[in-house]
Amino acid sequence: MNLLLEIVITFTAILGFGVIFSVPRRALLLGGAIGSSTWFVQQAGLAFGATPVFATVIASLIAATIAHLFARRIRIPVTTLSIPGILPLVPGSRAYFTMLAFVEGDYIQGLEYGVETMLLAGAIAAGLVFALSIFSFGKGIGNRYETGN
Amino acid sequence: MGAKADKVMDICLLAGEIMLTYGAETYRVEETLERMARAAGFSNVHCFTTTTGIFLSFEERKGRGDMMQMVRVDNRMQDLNKVTEVNQVSREFTSGSLTVADAEERLNEIYHAKIHYPLWLIHLGAGVAGGGFSYLFGGGLSDYLPAFIAAILASIGLVEFERYLKVRFAAEFAAAFIGGTSAIFLVFIGFGSNMDQIIIGSLMPLVPGVPLTNAVRDLLSGDLLAGISRGVEALLTSLSIASGIALSISLFL
């Protein structure tokens, strides 16, 4: 019941973010749905005992994958879907507590929160990277060896 | 330089300028411009884009001198609707269903269009996002409304400061300060209980989501310069927000 309420609230919050970023109307609800599923995946991962970073990587990967799939289908730039999709994962509270610890002069605690924030942000980026790599197979982005084309 | 080449150069750069200004990724701008110039029948097309400017060059005819122009992009806002529309125009232009004159007209329309959603709806959206995230980050349902109000105040502060002062980082700083102060005030008069969660909620709408996501994407597609500069841009915004909220906490707590 609690999770259901969280999913509904995530949906509305992502709709609000969609309006802030001026996401086109046809992608608004879709973005909200992707955001909700992202939140669900992350919470499910945490419930099954995954570490926060791992749960975030999986959720981010799934969000970015869905965003890529739908972006091709409805002919829309992929960012209009992937940004709303990963927003629920943003480590806002960690970043805030980092700042708070530094303001209060508790540097060790601040560093601990800061590292956690960086790891979670890196986890989101990693998920995006994986999804992008999957959808760039064959097209190619960046090469290391000239293996012939 | 022929008249057609001049026109095509203009519409390509206009399309690129709109896209880059309103938050498209670097690779998208480069690909779009190269495709449009090729579709117009020019060869040897090269486009180089960073976060703050676009260079485009192509060869008008064999033996004639190559043309090259650049455009400088000062402001970077977030309006993904305009990016989508320019994308649509470039698609139609490339497939040949739009003439050069039509494309120019459409692009000018997009360029001068107002924000996609009315301002009150954007403030409302910021409120809903703020309230929602305050709950998701561990606040109670009783914290929804105060976070909603604080987020709306922060959003109004952001827009109005930017309108009159025209300095982006000052506006973000002020918005974070207003959001934090109103959150502290609301808790002080007994409206809502979890101060931390309400403050986080009120600040969430200020998060630089577009530059952050684009920075990752740019770095991966090999636009290293653009990726790093976008990342720094997102970092500056984050620092503005952090210092605004730190000031309000130091003053009032």
From TrEMBL, chain A:
Subcellular location: Cell membrane
Membrane topology, as annotated: Multi-pass membrane protein
Ranges that cross the membrane: 7-24, 44-71, 78-97, 117-137
Classification via Pfam families: ThrE_2 (PF12821)
Domain Threonine/Serine exporter ThrE: 7-133
Main localisation: membrane
GO biological process: succinate transport
Cellular component aspect of the GO annotation: plasma membrane
Family: Belongs to the ThrE exporter (TC 2.A.79) family.
Protein name from the UniProt record: Threonine/serine exporter family protein
Species this protein is from: Paenalkalicoccus suaedae
TrEMBL record, chain B:
Organism superkingdom: Bacteria
Key words of the record: Cell membrane, Membrane, Transmembrane, Transmembrane helix
GO CC list: plasma membrane
GO MF annotations in UniProt: transmembrane transporter activity
Similarity comment: Belongs to the ThrE exporter (TC 2.A.79) family.
GO biological process, one term: succinate transport
Record-linked Pfam families: ThrE (PF06738)
Protein name (record): Threonine/serine exporter family protein
